[in-house]
Design brief:
The chain is an alpha/beta fold. Helices cover 46% and strands 19% of the residues.
């Protein structure tokens, strides 16, 4: 296993992410740090301000010390728009190397856009999208379809530079916001390819400003999941937040829950950019990606095949990452899922569920044992908690919550439904009832691999009157243990499917 420290020196913020590279093409984050550096706040002649350089070097020294304390094998460091645009770039890079020993690689505009796209396309199941990433010194727009970039543009302004351009003493904040909106709309008019965007394309927001926006929205709505990635916000909700924030002075902005104090002064500028873009493109939903440049770089490093083509099964890769990291019994997990699929198909005449529920079963089946890494007793509850906080890629929040519900319920006589009331925004009563049936399917599948030897190879079910006759085929080994365990689920089966279960 290799441990890598990845440093992203942006125009507004410097970030360190420490990752472990696992065998098989997976990675997990084990530590991270961030500091505001504001390199995008330059002198009028385009050179980096001395105070900002001193601050950046001090931050990089801390990052390097952190890497040493965490036994990092390799440090990869990149710089983006501010350093790329600075007239004093070479002097700055040399000063950094002399002071810290860190060799910064300045990304080109094309490379920066590439890594942002890689972060999104390898973590989200959105076939057609328009990505916006607002940095401190630049704003990136990337349009893709069928997992290929079709158009991209990098606008030479970001949250920090817009703040510098439009901050006027004693001007009302809302007037400043309107000027930024008009400025951005004018720049968007120059991008003729925006008029060719497919109306079905989804708007995907990347970067710190979108993460802060997501956090504020979730706090206002009392959203039950503390999860940025794949969070969806309506245009109406965004307008409400924007109208609330754009009129506030700095002191009041810094008191907003969910707002980073280091971002409070430039955050309204980023919101004005988003407002101009949403209006211009007539988007109705903003989907936040928690993955961007850093994750894109890490995917390319840890999963080399992504250099040629994106991960085809995003959810599967994300699940496999945890199975490897937590050292779960992969063969057993896959067999349980295989049996779940067979049962799902054989019992379709009873449950009549759409195929979309297979995704829920997949997460529940592959992660049902994860809680045992914490404690065996009551492990189903621990597994459910893990799923709820896993930030799995390639799955909607609703499906993630339902998978956790199924996992907690599958091996219990009953669960406290009051614990799940807070998820009513995501789960309907129909979802909960479906979850109860999926939990019985999972319970049967786990039972039918009790020995963990793949004894049961085939399942066939016949619905005859008030009974379901389940016939099992084996690999030739004794299936007594599996059948005994499965019979133990008969009462649960009768309760949710209203049929008696006989197993042969």
């Amino acid at each position: 296993m290799e441990r890598v420290g990845f440093i992203d020196l942006g125009s507004n913020t410097a970030r360190l992410v420490i990752i472990d590279i696992l065998d098989g093409g997976y990675y997990v984050v084990v530590n991270e740090m961030k500091e505001a550096v504001r390199l995008g706040d330059m002198e009028k002649d385009g050179t980096l301000k001395t105070s900002r350089v001193v601050q950046a070097i001090a931050t990089l020294k801390i990052f390097k010390k952190t890497c040493e304390c965490n036994n990092v094998d390799k440090i990869i460091a990149v710089a983006t728009a501010a350093v790329r645009q600075a007239r004093s770039q070479k002097v700055f890079l040399n000063d950094v190397f002399v002071a810290t020993g860190i060799k910064l690689r300045v990304l080109s505009e094309t490379e920066e856009a590439h890594y942002v796209y890689q972060g999104v396309i390898n973590s989200m199941e959105i076939p057609k999208g328009l990505i916006m990433e607002i940095g401190g010194g630049s704003t990136k727009l990337i349009y893709y379809n069928r997992r290929n970039i079709l158009k991209e543009s990098i606008l030479p302004f970001g949250a920090v530079t817009l703040s510098e351009m439009f901050t006027v003493n004693e001007e009302r904040p809302e007037d400043q916001a309107l000027k930024i909106e008009e400025f951005v709309k004018g720049k968007l008019e120059e991008l003729t390819w925006l008029k060719e965007i497919d109306p079905d394309a989804q708007f995907i927001g990347v970067g710190g400003s979108f993460r802060s926006l997501s956090k504020i929205s979730r706090r206002i709505k009392k959203y039950p999941l503390d999860m940025v990635h794949n969070y969806q916000m309506s245009r109406a909700d965004f307008y409400n937040i924007y109208d609330m924030i754009k009129v506030l002075d700095l002191d009041k902005k810094m008191k907003i829950k969910g707002m980073s104090t280091a971002r409070a002064d430039v955050f309204p500028c980023a919101l004005s950019v988003i407002k101009a873009f949403v209006d211009y493109m007539d988007f109705h939903v903003i989907t936040t990606s928690g993955c961007g440049l850093r994750e894109g770089y890490m995917f390319n490093y840890a999963v080399p095949q992504t250099l040629e083509k994106p991960i085809s099964d995003i959810l599967g890769h994300s699940l496999a990452t945890y199975i490897n990291y937590m050292r779960l019994d992969a063969a057993h997990c896959e067999q349980v899922f295989n049996l779940c699929i067979q049962l799902f198909r054989q019992l379709r005449v009873l449950h009549k569920f759409p195929r979309a529920y297979v995704r829920v079963l997949r997460v529940a089946a592959l992660m049902h044992d994860s809680g045992k890494c914490f404690k065996f007793f009551n492990y189903q509850k621990h597994s459910a908690y893990f799923i709820l906080n896993s930030n799995l890629y390639g799955i909607a929040h609703k499906d993630l919550v339902l998978a956790a519900f199924v996992t907690e319920m599958f091996n219990k006589d009953e669960i406290n439904m009051n614990d799940w009331v807070k998820y009513r925004e995501l789960l309907t009563e129909e979802d909960v009832e479906a979850g109860k049936k999926l939990a019985v399917i999972l319970k049967l599948a786990v039972a039918l691999d009790k020995s963990r030897n793949n004894v049961i190879t085939e399942i066939n079910c016949d619905v005859l009157g008030d009974s379901v006759i389940m016939k099992t085929e084996t690999n030739g080994a004794d299936s007594m243990l599996e059948i005994k365990e499965a019979v133990g689920a008969s009462a649960d089966f009768r309760r949710v499917f209203k049929k008696n279960l006989e197993i042969l």
